[in-house]
Structure formats: structure tokens, C-alpha cells
Amino acid sequence: MPKIKLAENTIELIQEICVEFENKESELINVLHKVQGKLGYLPAEVQEVIARELKMSVAKVYGVVTFYSFFTMIPQGEFPISVCMGTACYVRGAEQVLAEFKRQLKVEVGESTEDGKFSINCLRCVGACGLAPVVTVGEKVFGRVAPSDVKKIIAEYREGCTENIKTA
Amino acid sequence: MTKIKSMADLRKLKDEVQSKIKLRENSDNPEQVVQIKVGMATCGIASGAKNTMNYFIEELEQEAIDAVVTQTGCMGFCYAEPTVEVTLPNKEAVVFGNVGKEKVREIINVYIKRGELIDGIIPVNFRTIDE
Amino acid sequence: MTDYKMHLLICGGTGCKASESDEIKNRLNHYIEEFDLGDEVQVVTTGCFGFCEKGPIIKVLPDNTFYVQVAPADAEEIIKEHIVKGRPVGRLLYTDPNSAKHVSDSKGMDFYKKQIRIALKNCGFINPENIDEYIARDGYQALGKCLTEMSREEVIKEIKDSGLRGRGGGGFPTGLKWEITKNVENDQKYVVCNADEGDPGAFMDRSILEGDPHSVLEAMAICGYCIGADSGLIYIRAEYPLAIQRLKVAIKQAEEYGLIGNDILGTGFNFKLELRYGAGAFVCGEETALIHSMEGLRGEPTFKPPFPSVSGYMGKPTNVNNVETFANVPVIINKGAKWFSSIGTEKSKGTKVFALAGKINNVGLIEVPMGTTLREVIYDIGGGIKGGKEFKSVQTGGPSGGCLTKKHLDIPIDYDNLIAAGSMMGSGGMIVMDEDDCMVSIAKFYLDFTLEESCGKCTPCRVGNKRLHEILDKITEGKGEMEDINKLKELSWVIKDTALCGLGQTSPNPVLSTIANFENEYLAHVQEGKCPAGQCKSLLRYDIVEDLCTGCTLCFRNCPVGAITGERRQAHYIDQSLCIKCGACFEKCKFNAITLT
Amino acid sequence: MDTINLKIDNKPVVVKKGTTILEAASGIGIDIPTLCHMKLDDMNIENKPGGCRICVVEVNGRRNLAPACCTEANDGMEINTHSMRVINARRTVMELILSDHPFDCLICAKSGNCELQDMAHKLGIREIRYQGEQSTYREDTSPAIIRDVDKCIMCRRCETMCNEVQTVGVLSAINRGFQSVVSPAFEMNLDHSVCTYCGQCVAVCPTGALTEVDETGKVVRALSDPAKTVIVQTAPAVRAALGEEFGMEAGTLVTGKLVAALRRLGFDHVFDTDFAADLTIMEEGTELLNRLGKFLEGDKDVKLPILTSCCPAWVKFFEHQFPEMKDIPSSARSPQQMFGAIAKTYFADKLEIKREDMVVVSIMPCVAKKYECSRDEFKTNGNPDVDLVLTTRELAALIKLSNIDFKTLPSEDFDHPLGESTGAGVIFGTTGGVIEAAVRTAYEIHTKKKLPKLDFDELRGMEGIREATIDFNGLPIRIGIAHGLGNARKLLEDIQAGKSEFHAIEIMSCPGGCIGGGGQPYHHGNASILKKRQMALYTEDKNKTIRKSHENPYILKLYDEFLGKPMSEKAHHLLHTAYFDRT
User: Fold this and answer.
1) Measured between alpha carbons, how far is D212 from D518 in angstroms, rounded to an integer?
2) pLDDT class for C472, splitting at 50, 70, 90?
3) Nearest to C390 by CA among C433, C439, C429
4) Spelled out in words, what is the top-level CATH class assigned to the domain C6-109?
């Protein structure tokens, strides 16, 4: 087994979260949510600690992590880009928008750019169908995005200036 | 917040808080209540329409009459400001001119409560701003 | 306590929040202060108005003025002109697409005329974060009535008599479900609210939870009373942060009032509520999968029976209903089964909420009586097809449903009619497609979804859908053979017949319904190598018409793959083997010299 | 009791409430095909995910086909198990499974013994209409088990064995949809995981996705090397199962033929692990009595209960999962390793050859033994005490490869001196056997009296956890028995919690003990096979003239000539070991 090489305070953080859920195996998903919320992703070492704390097999933890698309083992970019692929967005051209993001950033879905700034993911309906197609960057929602807007969105984040972007 | 300990408590609370959204309930079903529109363009405001409107709201509340009091733009009767349009449920709208405090009392007591017409009605071939 | 003379209701649903409705609210309040109207005008954040197409929306009461697509910069004008001077801001009013007139009063909008709001009655009306407003609208009266005046049996009978059926898609009679769970003996039972709405393009449940969370809490407590459960769990998608936050607020407020907790209204009835989070697995909408997910396991469905009513969460009898189903319950108790059952069709009572989306003018959330026709929904409420294009198909039931066509427009919508037409009610997603949509691609899109969301437990869904997808892919690539259409049908039927859970059993519906209703499109792809909608890239061909080409080299310079060659001032040429059909040349050409076939 | 009346293929059937359609059908001789389903009667082991969908049947009035394995029979049900619709569905599902399965049947380790292959044959699949992408994974080879996950059909049997039965928790379903597969965490290799190599996953895998590491080639090479003296030991459970590989009835004892076959294969000396089992009893029994004596004297440092340590999967299990308890099990090596240690010292000396020139081959019912012999502590200057381990199945393959007609072989006897054994050694192959053998010896040594009766029925059986109290002449000795690591875990947790009152506990990793080992002929879900093998071992025990380890004359001679006495320094050096914390 790979030896756990997490920082001591990270391990403590995970332990605290597990205790909060009474170290119950049935609370695994809540624990994973909370830990990912704090750390941004769930690398193998983190799953090992969770398994140990909840007294369950790490294979089961991994089985759960890989089952749910919300959980990720890859660190997200500084600006995680999510393209909604719900039906409403799809019929209004989300696929082309996604393709443009991939082309511009030269990464595939689920990957991060080399500089760690951006990562691309697909979402299933954020429920803002009136704004379709929808793209989210972090907490921010961009509506009615056309492939031609992609360059602009990326550029403004890349320059670290997020002020003057059209949002809807 | 204090706990609601019985059904009676719950009903009491409901009665208390209902007034907060009364305005919304009434405007959702305006045809079932008395609708009052006060002309509040510059000319109206200058002639005291704001006071008229407030007075309407206060009086109607005192009399416990369900009503929607809204403001509207210039009705085109600048000579008779403040002007007020009153629509009773299932009745045609009626417009009154020169509505001051006294007139408000009269409209409420005679027209709204008893349905009897009073002086000061302006003929209804006007257009409202909505149209 | 101040009774405000005017209320400005501003939509605080996810869609409108995304369009800065919070900022608009801040600015409105700022100007209200500035004009010293703080005692007269109240700005209220409410749930979704449903008219998402034109969000953010502000409704001014008492005059019912309906402002659409409001931007933060508009706040000043609204206060200055409308509130202070009584002059509605004309340019922000909704324009009726048919009469091209501004409609100031929302009562006059076609979008709302044909709707009846039961589940959504408080959405866009009350502040969801204020329990008093819910109570003012008869909130928790139904719970009180059940606890103090009705026996468990009487409540169940009322629900049964109302004819309410599960709104999550299956349409199982709700009262019967409660009765079954009640009749299973056990010292611990659970009420579960399924808020794992995952259909792509559906947001009914989210809107209810965001706009009227208490109605769900109240109904869950009523259900708990009926079946003998003291615990309720709401399983909600983690992707719905706003709904989660509103639920948390609502639970806290209900607890503070003692409407959730121990000895509710002094009746001795205890009921507590907890939230559980989904983590992005569509299959968890299936109740056994949902239960496993709540137990911290992979969300794989298990064979039924045993049904959750007998053995559910932690092996205990568990009643699972969906959000919209619950939202109907308090209204039924308050207004009576008779009133409720007077709405709707013979076998489907009440209303249904639909999330209307796609190529339609009025994207939004609507609630119509069962029995309303698709035509009324699409043309009257939805305002017809966007951009004046021609209607082609409407998809109901999400990835489990089917694509209906023009000939189905006049069928009254209810559970049974939709199934008979080859689709299903599903949870209420309704996606409208126009002439530009390729139905083979649409079938593939849904299969894409199923493929990604299949849990992988049973063979037909895990492998069968993969093979279906591959065949569809082959057809959209222009490599399909006639035999493939047969294969699609045969395999689809076996998957429907043998898959383990509802997801698998319905996953071929988009394939079967598109073949049934749009076979000519399949044939065009296979026999002629053409995509009639011009959507399947592999089947497109860009050519340069020599006579029209001036040799300006604009296309040459814009081609991302160097597929265009030609000398300046000479006709250019596209190398088809290199062309990736991106269409850049087509868009750039100023002389219409490039054709698309 | 509630009974249910139903009709299957027009035949009326009456069954108990709670019976599945599959069981009801099998009761009247209708054999509905199944693939993922597995039920081991009496052992509480069931795998019923309802996932493969091969067993679907048509139930009158139902919209969809129903899986027979998990649909309960209802009153008035009318079932058709072979309508057009059913057969078409079943064959289509089978084609789908095969469409995501490598087509290398001809060279697959499981060929001829593969449930998937049999099912394809049974359903008459002649073409696969639906073809497309196949899942591909990295092959994972460990010291004992090979995972070729391309061949996984997601029946989940291995997952059930690894988690619910063994509670080892190495395997889990991962990913979802078409990408879903059963794997260790992070898709790591088994040898990086907490896998015990018990091989129960291999024992139940219906395809070639999980198989043992094949070492027949190395054995053939050793046998053909004139410079090497190749000796072989064969474990007790092998003789009760090997016959099955040659079409003989389960439970047929083939000890004599086994010896004859090994000799014909060319082994220089054919010995019996039973001999080493007797040796184990001498060491472990003595250790038990020592600890017990000190404990009774009130020595607080002495830990009881003493746990057996013959099973390598069990050893690895507690090293990973209960490292803080590594002082509790007996320090005695397993019989395989005791044999190897004696063979490469005592016996090599006798032959006057160097240990490097001797190759010790074990025939074992077990895949974990392949791993055990590779542990560093069982090597001298890098040379292992046991060089190669073949499972029962591999031996059968080797016999077939060597053109030996097993069934017609004469019965032959083991060689001396390491081939002589007692009945006590034989029953090492079944759950309860090790402790019964230990009791026979410990009793007589402790009480210095002859046992009135050698059969301890209270220690026998198939229940997962058994307990008994044996009267050692007024001293009640409380004994616990667990087979299956899940059951072992329960006893360990009791010890941890200070709730255990046992003096001695026998633990075997595999359900049934070694007779149900991961290297045995596949039982294909038929639990009665295990019972027959168990009966066979008790029969061989009964037929032995000597049935107590301490009466084995060659054991006595070994101590006399070489080891001194049990627990002597030399014995300690050669026959005992230490355990490691592997967390």
C-alpha cells in the first residue's frame, strides 16, 4: 500500500470531518462531499484516511468515489469551467461551445491546463435553461454563450480581470 | 421565535401575518376586490394625490375593506386632479375628480359600501396609460 | 409592523440569480432608501416565476406590472419612474410576440392564462426564506388539521380519493403507497423526499424547493404521521446549492416554530428532518438506488420486490415520494380531495409541472391541468417556436421518454396518453425541437446520457446501450446500413424487456420513438447519406462554386486545417479528405461562393 | 407455513413462501440457466445481484421479463421459462456479454471449465450480432492470482466473496456504466493491496478473469533437470478433490492414485504434507500446553486464546487487519513450510545434497500457498524452503499433459521418511480438523491418559463459527472454530473487546477449510461437493491405523535424530516464525 503522505493538518481535518459524522460508514457520501469541499478533490491518500477513519475498505471508498460524477480525484483548475450539457443547452448549441473551449485550452473534458488555471467539465443541467447554453466558471454563470464568446471568457480570466464580462 | 404549541396558536399566527401579504393576495385576484387607481403623474402629485392615496389606504384598512390601491400615470384630466379610478367587483370602472380627504370618505361610505353613485364622476371615455 | 403599500417581487431562482437578480435587489433597495420610500415599498426575493426565458423578472404589486430581462442598471429607473411617479417603464415590459404589444399586467400574459398553480402556488409569490409568509398562505394548516382532526386512515383516504399519482414519472397512486407503508409493521419507518432531479433540461423540483420549501416539509410530516414515521430525509442533488440553502433555512425556521420536531402542535407527534446529498448520479432517482446512496453506497438499484415500503432505508419501511408529489399534498388536505379530483382527466388528477425548454419562445416552468394538450402548452403557453421555425418534435420524459411529433400535438397530456403515444410523463422535462434538429442525433444525445449515467450493474443497460449508441454513431457518421435500423429496434426491445431498473428499461425509448416517428430521417442518413437537418457533420459537404469565387483568399486564411488551396484571384478548392466541416469558410465567404450540401 | 401454488411451463408446483422462481423450477427439474447467481447452501453465502439477466423468464401478466433468481414465486403465477421471447432475450443478453469479452477462448486458462463458455454453448450462440468497443484493462499479476479484467462480466461473485464472506475488502465494483468493473482501490495491483490470496474470488469466478498463477511449466522444467532432486509434498485436501478433475464422483479418495501419478510425473520422492501436519501438532500442541500452563499459573504476560497459524491467507489477514494481535497466533509455521524446512535440512542431509540442488514442490488446494513460500522468512540465503506450489487444478492439468490415465492408475504408498502420517494429519484439510488433531495430542500429553474416543463430533460440521468445550480431565478447555475470514473477524473482534473466553481457536480462511480452497477443482456453486470432500477426509482418518500425531513413528524419529524435542531451539529455528505489521 502506498504510505499516506498527507500533511498532518490535512489528516486532522479529515479526521475532524469524519468525527462530525460519527465515523459512520453510512455517512461516507456526506464525508466525501465535505472533504472535497475543503480540499477541492479526493486523491488516493485522502481516500485511504477516510477509509481508515470510517473503518471500511478503501476499495469501497474508491468504488463510491468513481461511481458519482460529482467526486473527482484530479485537482480542478483555478477557474473550473463547466459546460452544461442538459438537453435545453444541447439543442441550443452547447456542444459547439464545449468544443471551442477544448480547442482554445487544448485540454479534454476532465483535465486541467498545464498552468493549472483552467479545467473543463460537463454538467447535467444547472436548471438555468432559459439562459441556454450555459457555462459556469467557478460560481459565476454565463448565459447564452456562443462559441465566439469563448475566447473572450478565457482571456479575461487569464488576465486575472473578471470585471467586464458579459454575464447574460 | 416562540414555539407554536397548538392549532389555535397556529391560526392566531396566521391571522397576524396574513396582513403582510394581503397586498399580494388581493392583487393576485384584483377582480374580486375593490380596485382603486390614483393618478400620480406630476400634476397629480402637485395637487396632493399622494396624500389622497395614503388616505385611501388607511381608511380602507380601518374599514376592513379588501382593496387594491395602485398608482397610475396621468389620466388626462389635469383640471380635476387628483383623479381616482374605482372599480368595484363585477362593475365598470368609475373615475372621480378632485378627490381630497372629504371626497375619499364619501367615495368609501357611499359608493364602495353602498354602491350608490355620487357627484364628481368624470365621463368614462378616457384612455389610461396602460393602453 | 409596517404594511407596505407596494411590493416588488424579484425572482431568486437559480436562473435569475445567475443573471444578477441579487445585484438588482441591492440596487432597488439603494434607490428606495434614496427616495425615502423605506416604509412604503418592500423588495421581496421569491421563488421562480416560471418565465425563465425572460429572466430576471420583477413583479410590481399591487398593479401586477411584470418586468422582464431586468438588468441592475434598470433599478434606478424602476424606482424613479414607476414607484415614485407611477409610470411603468415601458421598455422593460413583456412584449406579446403575437400582438407585438407591451403587456403590463402579468394576468394578461398568455404564458399564465392557461396555467393552474397548485404545486407552484407559492412560487414567485412568497419569500421562501420567511416561514410567516408561508403560514399566511395557509401554511402548516394542513398538517395541523391532520394531526388534530383526522385519523391516519382518514388522511390516507383523502389522498387516495384525490387521485394524486407520483409526479416523479412512474405515476403510482400516492395514497396507496402511503397505505402500503403504513400497513407494514415496524418500530422505525422513514419518509424520503426524492429531490434528485437529474433529467437534462428539467428543473421542476428545484424550483419548488427554491420557491416553496415549506410545502414539501409540511407534506413530509403529514406523510410521517400517516405511515408512522418520525424521521424524514430529503435526498437532494449537490448541484442545487440554492435549493439546499433554502431547505436548510426552512427546516430551521420550522423547527424554531416547533412545526418540525417533538410534540408538534401539542399533539405528541414527533417528526425530524435531515438532508442527504446526491453526488451526480442520475440513476439515484430510482428509489432503491437512492436508498443505497443515502446509506453511503454506490447508487446501484436492486430488484423490486422487496419494495422500499417493506424494506428501504437501513432495511426499514420507507415511503419515497418526489418533490412535486409532496407539494400537492397540503393543498389537497386544505381544499379537499373532491376539489383536487375535479381537475384533470379520468385517470390523472390535478396538475403537472413541466419545464419547458428548447426551441421555444417562452422557456420556463409551467403548471397545467392534466388533460391540457401539447399544442396548448407549446403554442399558447410556450408562445410557439423560436425564430419562426417549424415545429418538429417535442420530447417528454427526459432520457426515458420519447420524441413526439405533429400528429401528437392534440393529445391531452396525462400519464396514460403519453405512454400510449410511445413516450412518458417522466418528471416533467419538455424539450421542443425544430426543423434544424436531427432526430438521429437527438436519439444519440439521449443515449449518450444514459450511457454515462448507467450504473453498469445489469448487462442490457451496461453493454446493450453501448451497442445502441455505437450503431447510432455509425448512422450519424454516414456509415449505417439498413440492417442497423432493424438491429436498433430488436436490441431496444430486448433492453426494455430485460433491464434491471427503470432507467435501463426506458433507455431505448428515444431510439424507438424516433424510429417510429421519424423513420424517414434514419433512411435519409442510411440510404442517401444525408442529414436532412444538416446537423450530422460527417454528412455535410462544403464546396466552392468556381464561378462565384473571386479568389479573395479569405476562406483559405480562415480554414483551421489547411483544407483550402488556391492562388490569389483564382478559384479556390476544398480538399474533402482534410475538411473537418467546421463551417468557418462558409461563414466568412462574402460572395456566397461556398455551398453546403 | 404459507405455501404458494404456481405453474412453471404448465407444470403445477407447490413451494414455500419466499421461494424464488429459480428454486421452484429446479425443484421440478427445470434448469433455468444462470450466470451471476451463486448460492452455497448451509454456508450463508449468496450472490444475487440480478445483474446478468440470463435467467429471465416470462411471468404471465407482467410487462417485463423477470429474473428467476431474485423474483419470489407468488400464488397463481404462470411462468414460461423457454418461450420465443425468453429465448430471444436470453440469447441477445448473452451476445451482449460476449460482445464485450475477448475472443481468446482457445488459449484461456479457464477454457473447458468456464461457465461463460458453457453458457454460450448451452444457448447455442453461433454469431455475435452486436459488436463494438471492448473494455481493456491492464493485466495484474501477483505472486498467486492473475486478474485479467477484460474477461470480467460483472457477476460480482468475487466482490461478494471478498467483502461479505471474507471481509477482506480488496475488491469493489468501480466506475459506472460500460466502464464499471471489479477492481482493487485505485486499480492498484493485488500485491500492493491487503489481498490475502485466499483465492475465493478465483474459486467462484465464472470466467477467466481471475485465475491462479500457473507454475506447471516451472515444475516440468525442474523435473527434467538431471541436476535437481525434486521432491513433492501433497496436502490433505488434495486427495479428496483431485478425482473430480478426472470425472470421478466428488468425495472420492484418490490418495493411492495421487501418489502413483506423482511418481509417474517423475518426482524423486513423493511425500505427504500430512507428515508435516503431525509435526505441526507437536509444536503447536506443545505451545498451547505451555501457554495454557502459564496462564493457569496466573502469568499475566501470557496471551490466550492461542490461534492456529497453518493458513497463509489467515496469517496475511491478521497482519493487515489486526496487527496489534500478532502475538496471539501460534508461532508454528504451516505444515507446508515445516515440510520445506525439514526437507531442505534433515532430508537433504540424509541424501547428502545441498539445498540448492533440491527442489521442493507442493501440491496444494490453495493459491495463497504460492505466496506463502515466497515470503522472505522462509528462505535461507535466498533459497526458499518450498520452491514451487501447484494447485490441485494445476496438478490435474499436469497429469493430463503427461498422458497419464489417472483413473486406471494403481494405488501406491508415499515414500519414507516424510510420507508417513496419521489420521490427525489427514483431517487438517477440513474445518475443525486442525483443532481436533491438536486436542487428540494435547489431551493425552496433558492428562497422560489415553483418549477413550478419537472422534470429536462436537468439533465437526460446516457452520461458520462453532464452539465446544472439551474436558481435559476436569479442566474444561474451550475451543472456537471459524472458517471463512468474515467469521474469523468476528472472533477476533471479540478477543479485541476482551469478550472471548476461548483457550484455543482454529481458523481457516476458506469456507469449509482447505477442502474448499481457492486451488481446488471448481465447485461451480455446488456446496454439497464440499461436504463430500469433508466426509472423505474423515473416512481416511478413520481408516488410518495411527490417528494421533504424537504416535507417528517417523515424527518421533525426527525429534530423536534431529530436532530434540518440541519447541527446542532447533525446532524454534526451523519450525517457528514471526509475524509482521503490514499496515
Assistant:
1) 9
2) very high
3) C433
4) alpha beta
Domain ranges of chain D: 3-122, 140-212, 215-583
**Is residue D78 among the annotated active site residues?**
no
Instruction: Using pLDDT thresholds of 50, 70 and 90, give the confidence band for residue B45.
Output: low
Interchain contact A7–D (C-beta under 8 A): no
Q: Nearest CA to A68 among A47, A52, A98? A: A47
Question: Which pLDDT tens digit goes with each residue over D144-164?
Answer: 999 999 999 999 999 999 999
Q: Which of C64, C218, C249 to mutate to test the interface with B (most CBs of B within 10 A)?
A: C64
Chains A, C: CB contacts within 8 A come to 136
Amino acid at D330: S
Running DSSP on this structure, what letter comes out for residue D366? -
User: C182 — alpha (psi -120 to 50), left (phi > 0) or beta?
Assistant: alpha
In DSSP terms, which residues pair with D270 in a beta bridge? Answer: D232
| Integer Cα distance of C402 and D185 in angstroms | 39
Architecture of domain D3-122: Roll (3.10)
At residue B75, the pLDDT reads 65
Whether the pLDDT of residue D314 is over 90: the answer is yes
**Overall CATH class of domain B31-122:** alpha beta
What distance lies between CA D180 and its chain's CA centroid?
28
Catalytic: D330?
yes
Q: Do A62 and D170 touch (CB under 8 A)?
A: no
Whole-number Å distance between alpha carbons of B67 and D285: 98
Q: What are phi and psi of B94, to 5 degrees?
A: -125, 140
Could you write out the three-class secondary structure of D134-161? CCCCCCEECCCEEECHHHCCCCCHHHHH
**Closest chain B C-alpha to C87 CA, distance in angstroms:** 5
A143 and C279: CB-CB below 8 Å? no
Residues of chain C with pLDDT > 70, as a percent, come to 99
Residue C457 has pLDDT above 50, yes or no: yes
- Partner D contacted by A6 (CB < 8 A): no
* CATH number where A152 lies: 3.40.30.10
The CATH code belonging to domain D140-212 is: 3.30.70.20
Residues of chain C positioned with their CB less than 8 A from the CB of A167: 18-20
Q: C-alpha grid cell for residue C397?
A: 420524459
For every residue of C277-331, DSSP letters joined together read EE-S-GGGGSHHHHHHHHTTS------SSSPTTTS-GGGS-EEEEEHHHHHHHHH
Q: Do C314 and A125 touch (CB under 8 A)?
A: no
Q: Is residue A1 part of a domain?
A: no
D514 catalytic per annotation: yes
pLDDT in tens, A100-141: 999 889 988 888 888 888 989 887 777 677 788 889 887 778
Q: Which of D369, D370, D531, D548 is catalytic?
A: D369
Domain count, chain A: 2
Rounded to two decimals, the ipTM of the complex is 0.90
- Count CB neighbours of D12 within 10 A: 9
CB-based contact, B66 to chain C, within 8 Å:
no
D501: annotated active-site residue = no
The answer regarding whether domain C439-528 maps to CATH 1.20.1270.10 reads: no
CATH code given to domain C351-434:
3.10.20.600
CATH second-level architecture of C131-341? 3-Layer(aba) Sandwich (3.40)
At D534, phi and psi to the nearest 5? -65, -45
Q: Is residue A72 part of a domain?
A: no
**Is D377 a catalytic site residue?**
yes
| Active-site residue, D114 included | no
Q: Which residue's C-alpha cell is 412560487?
A: C123
Q: Give the Cα separation of D173 and C466 in Å (integer).
A: 19
pTM of the model: 0.89
- The whole-angstrom separation of Cα D437 and Cα C237 is 59
Nearest to A60 among D169, D176, D193 (CB): D169
| Alpha-carbon gap, residue C173 to C251, rounded angstroms | 27
What is the span of the domain harbouring residue A101? Answer: 79-158
Average pLDDT, stretch C322-326?
Answer: 96
